[in-house]
Structures are given as C-alpha cells and as structure tokens.
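Handout, tutorial session.
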Amino acid sequence: MTRVYITIDTEYSSGLYTGPGADDRAENYARSIACPTPEGPAGITHKLELLAEHGQKAVFFVDPMPALVWGVVAIEDIVGPIVAAGQDVQLHCHTEWLGLAGPANPLASKATGKDLADFTFEDQCAILDYARTTLIAAGAPAAVAFRAGNYGANDDTLRALAMIGIDYDTSHCPALVGRSACRIGLTAENRDPVGHMGVIEVPIGAIGTIGGGLRHAQLTALTLAEQVCAIRHARDSGRGSFTLVSHSFELINRRRLSVNPIVRRRFTGLLKALAHMRGVTTGTYAESPPTLQLTGGSSHPLPASPMRTGRRIAEQFVSNALYGSI
C-alpha cells in the first residue's frame, strides 16, 4: 500500500500584512485562510468538506508565527476547524513574522530573517520551541512533523527539530534543489524518506521532465493527469509514500478573491481519483507517518511524457491568462 500525503501549508500572508489591528487580521484571514468568493468559500473549510465527502485524509501544516502580532486567537481560528474535521495538524513556520513583531520578537538576540536557515542553531531551537508551544496553545495536538516556510531549512533546522522532539521534516524538495531557499544537505537523488541529522526527512514528490530534470508535485505545478500518473507510478514501483504540496489559498486568486476553476478541479479530481485507486491510501503524520524506504538506491520518478507536458503547458497558460496567479 502506498500512502499519499496531501500536505497543505496553511498560513496567513506576511506579504499582505499592513498592521496589528483586527481589521487587518480579518482581511488577511479572508485572503489566506477562508478564501470567500462569489462562487462560495474556497479556503480550508471548502477543502475540509471535500476531504470528508471523498473520505480522504490530509496534513495541514499550520504556521503559528502570526500569533506574534495578532495573538493566539488568530491561530485558534485556523486550528479549530481542522481538528474538528478530524484532519491532521502539523507545524509550519514562516520567520518573516519575527521582523514584523518588533518588541514582541521572542528571541533573546532579537534576530530576524526570511528563512529559518538564516538563523543560528540556538535561535532556530528557540523559534521552533515558540512555534510548537503556540500551536499547542491554539488547540493542536503536539506536532510530530514540520515544514519550513519557503522550504527554507538547513541541517541545523533538522538538528533543532530533533532537539525539541519533532521526528519528521518535509522541507526537502528534490525538484527545486539549488532553486529554492532549502539548504538541507541532500540532493535531487534523495527522493525517498531518509534519516538525516536525527530526523526522518520526507522529500516532496517529483516527476521527470523533458531534458532530464524534475518538476515538484504541487497542486499548482502539475495537472490532475500528472498527479494521478505520478501516484500510480509510485504505487507500481513499490514506494511506501508520495508527498503532494498545496496551500490554504491555492484555489483562488487572492487579489481578486475569485476561484481558479482549473486548480479547484485539480484538487477535487485528485480526491475523487484517490478514493477509487487500488493499492493507495491517504495518510497523516499523527496516525500513519512515512517510513524509511527499505530498498537500496533512489526511486525513479514518473518519466517525462511529451503529451502530458504539452497539456500542462497549455493548461498553465490558460490558468494564468484567465484567472491569474495566486
């Protein structure tokens, strides 16, 4: 049985932050979490309803750092519906909020930075401890898994996670090695769960591209056909798990607060496909965490297909032209 981890980075936007007031928080919540549109809500409550309808599980990586400016209640409003729906809450962290917190910055050094990897090991331990404690205060169970904001972790991040008792990290994206903020000491060949720096690193899924590269398994990066084919390939190759990435706001254009029907069809179609796919189930870190790959060597990604690639290019063009980027 291959477990698919539908991971949803669930976060307020530091880029949309304009102040600590209640109105600012409400606007950010609308554009980043709830996502109301003329066609109805398209944020986390919509995703929770679709997951329940199709009997699937997901992992919501929730960022508690905005509590620095809005208090824990801002995180409770996110965690509450997810826990009530029986879905998995794990830890996410965008350190940009430290710079917005001013005197509320909990670090003794008062350091700021865009990514966790910008901080010393000691400061990373303090940041992660604050984030974990705040997420629990917001009503989440103790986290066992983590993903860095912007994938911006390094080996010290993994050491810090091990230090505070978090066993899994999923910040390594093989398809973006050298092109993202991730500085973990792994390569594009590390595509399966691997022990590293005291934790189990669970890489983001990938497919092959024409020319020999990789493309990351994100809802906005792959068509529905590519996602389904990648999961079937993982199953048929005997892989224990495959990780997909999404965000709380990915079904909409946040500037317009309008639905992107192409991306929404991808998410709905994925859940429908998974509900009927033999040999595949969706998993959570709380109940069924990924296991180390026992076979030797690195697994091979779904090979590139000119037909699938051409359809994706066309679909992405239409999506961006008609509905805009997120």
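The second record follows below. Compare its token runs with those of the first.
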Amino acid sequence: MTDLQEIPLFPLRVVMFPGGRLELQIFERRYIDLVRHCLKSETGFGICLLKQGEEVIKAGTQQTIHNIGTFVFIVDWDQLENGLLGITVEGTAKFTVEDCWQADSGLLQAEVKFSENERVGNQLIPLDNQFSGLADLLQNLENHPLIERKNLDINYNNLWDLGWRLAELIPIEIETKQALLELDDPWERIRNIEQLVSDLANRW
C-alpha cells in the first residue's frame, strides 16, 4: 500500500479516525454525484479537516485542507425527513495527501499514500493495566445515547481502538484531534490522550 492512489475528498470541520462512524447530510450536486458513484462502484472517499474555507463552497473562496485524513466507506444511506440524502460512513484507514486539486465538478481530488499501520484490521496491540482507567472512560462515553446509536465496534483490549475512539469522543479542540490523528505512534497518541483527559478532569 505504498503506491499513490487517486481518491475524491470530502473536506469537513470534522476529524475522522479508522473505525469511527459519521452521519452526513448530502445536498450539494458534487457530493450527490460522489455518493451515487461510491454506492454503484462500492468505493469510498477521503475525509480531511478543513484548514481554510467553508464546507459549502462560495464564489470567490477556496478550500484548503490538512494533508492527513481518513478513508471512509458508506455503510448506510436513507432519505431524511427534510428530503435530503443522509449517509453513514465508516473510517477504514489513515492517509497522507501528496497532491490535491479541484476537478471541473468542484470536487477535490487527491493523490494519497495510505498508512500501512493505521487501518482497521491491523495487528492488535494488547492493553496493559495502566490504561484501564481510559478503557473505563471509553465505556462510559460509548454508553451515551448519542454515541450508542453509532453502533461502534470497539475492541477494548486493543490500543489502536482505545486511542482512535477516545481521540474522537473526548471534548477537545478540533485542531487537537487533528494533531492526534497525525501521530504515527499509538503509544504516543494514548499518552497524549491521558494527559488531555487529566487536564479536562482538573478543569472540571
């Protein structure tokens, strides 16, 4: 998986991690076409955090993105009560954007390199007892009704899962979430999360 691959991008004010789930409302023509193509061809797209610009492109503005994102597949879709198309996506692998451009359709396209390690199904890293408190915290977060409806598949004995899910779910700044995504070492990520959780607890 070291070769560059071309994928479409969906820039959002959201940071996705492998194994995470996100519900989206689709109304722009470029994204309706993207969803149709993905469902028909059983392919996915990349989600990257916006650095500048809005999620909906306005005349005279430009979108710039962080170059580390997560590839997602559509796992569910439906027409919402407001008439818009609703989809649920699930993250599968982290990638690095090597080149990015805007297609004639308005859709961002990118050449990306996929991470060999940060992906769903990678070799498990067993947890030791020092992180049992973080595992308990994640269990409590998962039981929240808004999180419970995501139907997340979490392996509580896997350091990858613990880091990814806590990074998504704890209440921290979006840029801090992006910094956690950009880390390649799962041990460094979990130590950073441990410090962030400690800071939050002291603040409360």
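Points raised in discussion: The longest strand covers residues 85-102.
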